[in-house]
Write a structure and sequence with these properties.
The chain is of the alpha+beta class and about 575 residues long. The protein has 19 helices and 21 strands. β18 and β19 form a beta hairpin. α1 packs antiparallel against α9.
Length: about 575
């Protein structure tokens, strides 16, 4: 049974505050036969009527507010099962809520309603099996079912207030008034704490959120957390010293005081939030949340749901069914988004986040994606390793090539011969310092120019300029190393006798890719050779034209003689060569 004060009992001392939450229903008078329905109720009736009208077959003359249809069940009297959270035990639940079922059966005949009491641990399992048509329970269960799309609210229970019924409740955290060592929530560290049930909103979850706000983890910081199973059990545990503090739903302490079972001055309220909710007339330590709803399940007959909602909201505030549950009737359904936020902040169903998902479950559900990912990783790893190896090899080759290139460049720059290289089109791509000196062209000016414009050579035999590029292009792959002597005309038109060679440059495939020209200055050598030739010529003239017979002998044989010697022996000069002079007679 709900733990709330009686509708007409006076509020205990210290609680006579005209407090009212912003989301509270407007004040309403007890309803009697023939009275008018308030605007919120009229709107709800019209909405439910239109929904029913849209979902049921009808003819043009059918009235929207028809008589309640009978449920399709076995027997002559249809039975609608109303599950109720038995937070004070199943026997008390039947005693408290039986009048509500009788009230509905009386006003919605021939339909009959019966109460199905459920313990905390039975509610969600029974809901999943659809063992009942309606549910009256704490908002935690309703919010869970609403999130799953299984249920929708028809009306919200109201509790007595000062000037009008209240449709909100929360939790109250308290300790014995004799406990001077417990003044704040922080003082509860290391203490024993009692609560109703892990799934009770007013008797645990509302307080749990306040503990989180105070950076207090009950499951780690309390010496003991005892779920007593009932509101009365929590109060008894605190007053008897079995627990250092506890929490119950708001209104319960006042209810026990009205029943003469508790003196309010024997308890001390912790973390009071009265200043935040000045119009709420009960002790409070938490936020306020909408009261218990009656929820219908999808699949119910819309006409029955409509008439259940209307009939409950028309229940007079002082009706025996309302007094039996210490309530003040029923009001229009409240907004339960604050309960959803509470569950989300506490990481509770249906908003819980899995801390650990079994590996086997992951493999069963995602094995194709995992297999594909593993294959992708394996292939990527193989390609990456292969790529790294190739890169390492290329880096090694590049390093070796760089070393060899540097060595070759240093060698070319160090040698005294001129070296020029050209590409396939005959454009200069390199020139060493010796070549710069011989041609008179700076490297910066020579690069990219035609080989024939920088390396200008004259063929001594034809006295024509040599066409190096045309020569290389004409021979192409058949080009071989050739050595020639030529006259180099430098940039200043000065002439230099050179000895040069032209060799082909071939690529990795053996294809002709250009030429390399190596040459050296032989001007001084040419001058010396020319002097020798001139001297020999002068001696030849003196020897040949001498009037005296002259012989050159080697071992008695004539190796050379002049014309005068031939005339002396009356023999031609050529016939005398190679003969022994003793064999000749003048």
């Amino acid at each position: 049974m709900f733990n709330r004060s009686a509708p007409h009992s006076p509020l205990p001392p210290g609680n006579a505050r005209a407090r009212r939450d912003i989301g509270r229903l407007p004040a309403r008078r007890p309803l009697h036969t023939g009275r008018r329905i308030g605007l919120p109720l009229a709107v709800l009736i019209l909405s439910l009527a239109l929904t029913s009208y849209a979902q049921t077959p009808h003819s043009g003359g059918t009235a929207i507010l028809a008589s309640p249809p009978a449920a399709v069940t076995s027997g002559s009297q249809p039975v609608h099962r109303i599950a109720v959270l038995a937070n004070r035990g199943k026997d008390a639940c039947m005693q408290d809520w039986g009048p509500t079922a009788d009230y509905l059966s009386q006003h919605l005949a021939p339909n009959r309603f019966e109460i199905v009491p459920l313990e905390f641990d039975e509610v969600m399992d029974a809901a999943s099996k659809q063992d009942f048509d309606y549910l009256i329970a704490n908002p935690s269960y309703y919010a869970h079912l609403e999130h799953l799309g299984q249920a929708y609210r028809l009306a919200t229970l109201q509790v007595p207030g000062l000037s009008a019924p209240e449709a909100l409740f929360g939790g109250v955290i308290f300790t014995s008034a004799a406990r001077d060592d417990v003044q704040t929530l922080a003082d509860l560290r290391g203490k024993r704490f009692a609560a109703v049930h892990a799934e009770s909103l007013g008797g645990w979850r509302a307080a749990y959120l306040e503990f989180k706000k105070a950076d207090l983890d009950p499951y780690r910081h309390f010496d003991n957390l005892d779920f007593r199973g009932s509101q009365d059990g929590v109060v008894d545990a605190v007053l008897s010293g079995q627990a250092d503090a506890g929490t119950v739903r708001s209104t319960h302490l006042e209810r026990m005081a009205a029943e003469g079972r508790l003196q309010l001055d024997k308890v001390k309220i912790l973390n009071s939030t009265a200043a935040s909710h000045p119009d709420y007339p009960y002790h409070l330590s938490t936020n306020l949340y909408p009261e218990w709803p009656i929820a219908a399940f999808h699949g119910n007959a819309p006409e029955i749901d409509k008439h259940v909602a209307i009939t409950l909201m028309e229940m007079p505030l002082d009706h025996p069914a309302a007094r039996a549950v210490q309530a003040a009737g029923w009001g229009t359904p409240q907004d339960y988004s604050s309960v959803h936020r509470l569950l989300w902040r506490l990481n509770l169903p249906p908003y819980q986040k899995e801390d650990h998902i079994p590996l086997a479950s992951i493999l069963r559900q995602y094995w194709p994606a995992i297999l594909g990912l593993c294959l992708l990783v394996a292939v990527s790893t193989f390609v990456a390793i292969r790529f790294l190896r190739i890169n390492a090899r290329m880096a090694s080759i590049d390093a070796a090539l760089m070393v060899r290139t540097e060595e070759l460049t240093a060698t070319i720059h160090a040698i005294g011969d001129g070296v020029i290289t050209s590409d396939l089109a005959g454009r200069i791509i390199s020139i060493n310092p010796a070549a710069e000196a011989l041609t008179g062209w700076k490297k910066s000016n020579a690069l990219g120019r035609s080989i024939d414009s920088v390396f200008r050579c004259i063929d001594p035999a034809t006295q024509a300029y040599v066409k190096h590029a045309d020569h290389a292009a004409s021979l192409g792959p058949e080009l071989q190393t050739q050595s020639v002597r030529a006259v180099l005309v430098d940039a200043t038109d000065a002439a230099h006798h050179i000895a040069s060679s032209q060799s082909p440059i071939r690529d990795a495939k053996g294809e002709y890719a250009g030429s390399v020209y190596v040459f050296r200055d032989i001007t001084e050598e040419h001058v010396r050779q020319q002097r020798i030739s001139d001297s020999e010529e002068r001696h030849r003239v003196l020897f040949t034209d001498s009037p005296d017979a002259l012989f050159i002998m080697e071992e008695g044989c004539i190796v050379d003689c002049n014309h005068a010697a031939g005339a002396l022996f009356h023999t031609r000069r050529e016939a005398m060569l190679g003969t022994n002079i003793a064999d000749l007679s003048p």
